[in-house]
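HUMAN: Quick job: go over this next protein and say how the chain folds.
***
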Amino acid sequence: MKKISSVLACALAVAVSLVSCSKVQDKSDNLKPRLVIMTDIGPADVEPDDNESAVRLMSYADRFEIEAIITSIGWNCDPYPPEWADYLYRVIEAYRTDVNNLMKRSGQNGFLSLEQEQGSQELGYWPSADYIRSRSVMGSPKAGIGVIGPDNNTAGSDLIIKLADEDDPRPIYVCSWGGANTLSQAIWKVQQERSPEEFKEFLNKFRLYTITDQDMVYAMRMNRAYSSHQWLRRDFSQDLMLVWDESAWLNQNALGVQNWDKYATHIQNHGQMGKVYPHYLWGVEGDTPSFLNAMPNGLNDPDRPEQVGWGGCHQFGVSPDRETYAWVNWQDPLKSISNDYEHKFYPDEFNDFAARMQWADEGAGNRNPVVIVNGNGGLRPIEMQAKAGTVVRADASKSYDPDGDNLSFEWWFQVFPDDGALPEISDASAQKVSFKIPDDAAGRQLHLVCEVHDDGNFNLVAYRRVIITVK
């Protein structure tokens, strides 16, 4: 890295204009993201990856408010056999045992009442298995736009409408492990029954992340017009945030296969959930990026799909059907950029899961560091302003590890397609860094990420994003 001379650095520092966000955390920072899962979970010899993703999701039940798990159609089933839902219930029952150990991770001694659990849940709270089971319902048994209508209402579509109507300002992150037909049905029903203004408000509540397009059987996967997803993209792309991933899920599958020995060693047979974690068939946990995208770890804001996170990065553009628009990553240069980040994050993403499965098995283990940048705690991106040509300083020295582990630091700027030159960080592995804003960067936003690892078991990671608007 090039270094600015001390004289020049001092002169530029005087001219720095930095305005940080408030150091007072918003109360909503302590609440979990609201999550709805639509899964075509089934027998391990047909749909093992959904079983795997369900185990991982349960190991993060303290990080997500699991509002609904809806069993529905996917590539391997049309119609969805209702008895396949038993595979979801098997994972939940395994969680019922393991949660007693998992709660030790946050010092939790018991559960709220089921009525209290129906309200807003704070980060760190492990819900009861009874709560999760009460939120597990059946969705649309058939695929395609052709079934959307008055005869396709289900407990799943009714629950989605109920969730959106709750007095809760938080968005609802919908993760489509199979087809999103159940959400499509809920949208169709509300469109029939409410005013245009009310309907728009309903759509604005959701952020849909689809693992490719699975609202049809696999053999007809290129028949985009068959899918209700195309209808969502065509008619509602301005009001419904729809992320169509064609990068993160493929890497999740492939990297999982390449690293299967680690799953066999650190995931399978660890706790009761590890005992129901099956061997892969085609790939490993291809659906997991849908909720990793909303992971509250300080790396990204899931309401901003261009910010890279554990679920990749996306930009608004034409979708693979070349007719409709969504947040996508199927074309270069973004696909290559997202691919590179997915490979970078994969070891930490796996280690994070493995550490949680150790807790599930033993009731003890490592916990993640806490990153504090320029005195700002919390998880939301820190907003700053700076003038082009000035030197900016960032300080993460107040970061700490809850287990007293030593910390190591890595600072980096996110790469965006067609982006300009990025600043050169003085010492990217230091607690405190400085860098000069490029002279021609006025009008741009620079995204700086502070990545912190501990030296405990699995070398766990935490992040903090700093967004610098250049004046």
Q: What stands out?
A: The first strand starts at residue 34 and ends at 39.
